[in-house]
Amino acid sequence: MTQPKVRFLDVPSSVISAETILPGVEPEKVYALVSNPFRHHELDGSGSVQGQISGPEAPGEGETFRQSMRLYGIPYTATSTVYRAEPNRAFGWRRPTGFTWTWEMEPTDEGTLVRETFDASHASIVGLPLAGALRVAGAFQRNRRGIATSLSRLSRRFA
To answer: What does the alpha-carbon distance between residue 114 and residue 19 come to, in Å, rounded to a whole number?
Structure first.
């Protein structure tokens, strides 16, 4: 299989967003996968998502889920709140610091356009913006690689 084309979008510096097209795949199939936190580890290109600890399989807006994570070899748990759950269109969650991850699906003549976005524009701790600190810590570079890998994994899943 050839490597899927992943296109990074021109977005503000506190955001990373990329997209790919899944030929012949319906948005419903993509949504079923990305909206189930129990399956996030299957797509995670960063290697940090280890599995889900608690929460619903199909959380709706306002519901939370907890996942087992690992970063730089250090295990931790992360709680996320779903802020967007539009069946077959978009699924997104927010961490307590305010950064978000969002998957969007759009039907096209070719299949489904899938976009993954990391947005730190509203991230803060005790009112202090986090985007700069995340950039210095390498989070943006790591998340950019992770998004490219996640979109590639999604493409292989439906190949």
So the answer is: 5
